Structures are given as C-alpha cells and as structure tokens.
Amino acid sequence: MGRLTRGGFTLLRAHRTGVDARSGRWQVVTVGVSAAELMPDGRWPEPLRPLADAVELHLRPAPGGRGTELSVRPLGGVATLPGMAAHLVGDDPDGYLRQVLRTVRQLAETGEVLRADRPAAERPATGPPGTDGPVVPG
Amino acid sequence: MRALCWEGVDRLAVRQVPDPELRNAHDMIVRVRRSTTCGADLPMLAGRVPGLAAGDVLGHEFLGEVAEVGPAVRRHRVGDRVVVCAAVACGNCWYCRQGLYSCCDNGTATGTVGEAAWGQPTGGCYGHPRTAGGFAGSHAEYVRVPYADVGAFTVPDPVSDDRAVFASDAAPAGWMGAELGAVRPGDVVAVWGAGAVGQLTAQAATVLGAERVIVIDRYPERLRMAERHTGAETLHYEHTDVPAELRERSGGRGPDVCVEAVGVADGGGRPVSLADRFTGRGGPVEDPLAVREAVHACRKGGTVFVSGTFTGFVDAFPLGAVMHKGLTLRSARQHGQRWIPMLLDRMARDELRTEHLATHRFDLDQAPTGYALFRDRADGCVRAVFSPHG
Questions:
Q1: Cβ distance B237 to B217 under 8 Å?
Q2: Which regions are flagged for Low complexity bias (chain A) (predicted)?
Q3: Cα distance from B343 to chain A (closest Cα, Å)?
Q4: Which residue among B127, B132, B176, B357 sits deepest, i.e. has the most Cβ atoms within 10 Å of its Cβ?
C-alpha cells in the first residue's frame, strides 16, 4: 500500500492492494467554464495536477449552462474518520479535496487565487506609535 | 496606520496596525474618508461571533479615495472617489452573474471555513471574522479592496461623502428588503426597525409604489426620523398592540410585505459560548421576536423578508404559520453590487437622501466612544460615522 502525503494528510493508495478503488466519496464543484477551458488538451488544472496519481477525476456538463461539474475522489481505501472527528485529528482528505477544488474554481473563474490580508503578526507595524482610544464599557 | 481594533468582549481600541498592501492583481488600496458603524458589528463587539480575534479591525461600510491600484484594475484610477460595497464578490461566478453577490463562490480567501457555520462558504465581507474572507475592516486610515472593479463604484460629484457612504451597505440592504420582498404598487408594507436599514427599506418601498408604509420601533427619536424622512407611519411597539394595529391599518388582511430590519437584540446579545466556539456553528440561540411578529402579522400569501443580522440559530420560530398562511420567507446579506449604481444615481438626483442617518460624527480616535453610543442607542444615535483623516 502506497502512502502519499498531500497537504498535511495521508492518502492511502489501496488500489494496488485490491481494496475497492471507488470507496471514497466524490467531492464535487461546479466551475463556470466549459470542460475544454477547464482542462485544455486534457491537462489537469492546478492545484489538482499534483494529485493526479492519488485521486480519480470525473467531468460532466452542469445543468442550466452553469459550466462543468468537476468531481474527484481519493483512489480508494482511504481510511478516514467521519466528519468532525476527521477534522479534529487533522486527517480530513475530503476537506482537503474540497479546498483544492475551490481553488481550481477560483483560478478558472477569476484568474487568480484570492489572498487574505496578511495577519498583523507577519508584518511589523510602521510609523509612530498609535493612540489608544477609550475602551467601550462592558 | 491607525485602526479600530476589537480587543475582546465589549472592548475596542484604536491601535497602530500595518498598512494594507496589494495582495492580488485585482486589488486596490483606498484611503478611507468615511466609515460607519452598522448593526452587524454589534454581535462581534459582544463576542457572539466565533472566529473574531483580538486585534481584528472592524468596519465594512465605507467610502474613500483610491490610493493605489493593482495591475488588473481597469475601472479605477488613483484619486477616484469611490464607495465600496461591504460584500466582497468576484463578479464572475454563477452567483454573481445572477446578481446574488453576497453568495459569491470566490469572495473569501479563507477556503472552506464557512462550511461548518453555513453549509457552504458564502461571499466575503470586510471587518468580519476569517470565515467572512480574511479582509481587514474599514475603520482605519486605509483598507485593501479585493476585486476592485466589481466592488468599488465612483461617486458622482454632486453626492456628498456623508450621503454616499450609505450606498456601501445600508442603502442596498434597504432596497433589497423592498425589492426581494416583492413590494408592488398598492401594497401595505410593515418594517420592523427604524435604524438606517429600516428607514431605507421604507424609502425603497415607497419608491416601488407601496400605498402605505408602517415602521415599528421603540425609540421615539428614530420613529420621528422615519416619519420626517421617509413619510412612513410609525408604531411604538411598547405603546401599542402591533399585530392588532397592523390589521387595523391593512383592512384586516395584514401587511402584504413584512420586512424585519432589526437583527440582534439591543446591545448585541450574549457572548458566544465555549461550545459554540468549539463547534464553529455560530452564535447562541437567538429569540427572533421581530421575525416572529412579522410572520404572524403578514397577510396570507404575503412575503416576510429578514434583513437583520442573525449569527446562528433561532428558537421558537413559527414555521407552522409560514406553512398554513402560504408565506414566502426570504432573506439575504445585501447584494450591493446589483443596486449601488442605481442608488448613487438616485442620490445624485436628490431622490435618495441618507445623510441624516449620520447622527454622530467622530475622528477615528474617538471611534470607541461612537460605538458605545451606537450600541446603546444613546443620545439618539442612529449611526456613528468616522473620518479617519479628519
């Protein structure tokens, strides 16, 4: 059994050991572009491409002209805890795949990955010291 | 730069924080000229919203001058005076193309963290916890504006800052309540809440042809303001039986459209519990008195629109009345990008006046005092508006 570490969790590649390769739940996102735009020449979109040997992928047109439904799931045998338990122990491949799919969609629809403001802890304050205002009474 | 930071439950302070920076090609930096308090801030101030961290900058309803633009920004140049929609949205996803900007698929930079609270991540908002995108608030000297071509709008010259700042959030929220509430000519419309959103809902209902608009609150000065500036009738809910009064004023039918524009209880309610923080499932159970009254008062087959800010769950919701009366129940965070150009046009033509809502004005250094007034509805405060650059 192969172990692939991606994004802080471990995908167990059980398909080589004969475990049902279709046991994982599909994670699906609707992307507002055609399949040809999403995967030109069949190339997997970033950041899904590095997972090509760890997940299977399925495309189909979304109803109502909404674009393309992009589905992925781990290549079988992923022994994960359900829902909240997986989240709590930090081993949540489904959550990670949803995050990856969300990024795929954002790149396809906006051309970039939206970044949060940098936390203040990462960048020192500049300029003269601030003036503390009064505190709202409790 | 200076900014108003949340320090803990009911504690605010003006601090020195890092200047914002361009983080994406579609970003711009805005030098803030006006930034106003909003009822949506009160649950955060009260510590009822999971995810807010000490040091986070509040504020989401603002206007300013463009100070810097990213390489992909096309509609704005340095020096433009712009009002910025409080909702952060990409303009390209399916939801944005339907005009449902606050539901944007790409409006947050914090991934799937909104799943636990709402089922799916929604669009972003400035000055909220990271579940709302990871964007610092506008009660600051400068603020970063993502998707600037989609969310920022040039203010027509005749429109003052004090008027245009309300095009950021309160005015589109008010318009939304009337439009999505499906107000039609001849309707009787009841609005719970005579704050800024309630008053602007009443104005919008009148513009859309409502025959009779009735605003309900318990603050006499707000009710007088609603009468004077919107032409609405008013009810003081501590002095009268509101459902009976509404029946009487609507021929026994009940209002055709009922808009709840109250949101949280006075003072913002109780702080979020440790269990709520642990599960990330939003704030504690709320008691939606105004929503409940609106459902009971509304005529059969009418529409109830919920505009107020609810952060989690509600208790004792009269679902049976919704079903048996055939009501349409709608709600949303405002989809401002859909209405702001129209609202600015109306402001420029003097058809929409909002500056009276700015009852109190402060420098940024006095912002905590402004929030105390706003939170407590003291001294007739409807909105406290801050001018970070004097």
A1: yes
A2: 128-138
A3: 27
A4: B127
